[in-house]
Amino acid sequence: MQFGRSYEEFEVGAVYKHWPGKTVTEYDDHLFCLLTMNHHPLHLDANYAGETTQFGKNVVVGNYIYSILLGMSVPDVSGKAIANLEIESLRHVAPTFHGDTIYGETIVLDKWESKSKDDRGVVYVETKGYKQDGTVVCLFKRKVMVPKNNYLDARGGEQPGRPVPAEPPATN
């Protein structure tokens, strides 16, 4: 299984469909809110959301959806990244609710070689998140510094630092 890509493996216009999707539970949403100190009742208080909002129920906190999509994209986009340079834009375009399943895909918008180091380049991508019915819920663009093949070769190849399993002891 591939984990990330080198600069040479990215092609402008390529689309990576991230798999599998993630069904968002109430527990996931509430835990994320509590961990990040976002105590807005729209996300945590079913009575408040039901009585006072246009949705009539809790809305999943948007940064959790962004985090899911960012994580989904790692095996296809940034698994070999030297650095995540910039999140250029982040848009939440539709709400997500408990029980929705999030899917994601990323398109390569551009790429360019580093001006200061010849062993790396920058990849510019846009990730789109959508629900089980196809409704787009989140879009973000980011720039990722990725290694070229010569960078990887100089540091031990595809999986640097991976140990070699020892032979098990002989049995009598």
UniProtKB/TrEMBL annotation:
GO terms for molecular function: lyase activity. Transmembrane segments: none annotated. Residues 151-172 are annotated as: Disordered. CDD domains: FkbR2 (cd03451). Gene3D superfamilies: Hotdog Thioesterase. Pfam families: MC_hydratase. InterPro entries: HotDog_dom_sf, MC_hydratase, MCH/BMMD. SUPFAM superfamilies: Thioesterase/thiol ester dehydrase-isomerase. Residues 162-172 have a biased composition (Pro residues). This is L-erythro-3-methylmalyl-CoA dehydratase. It comes from Kribbella caucasensis.
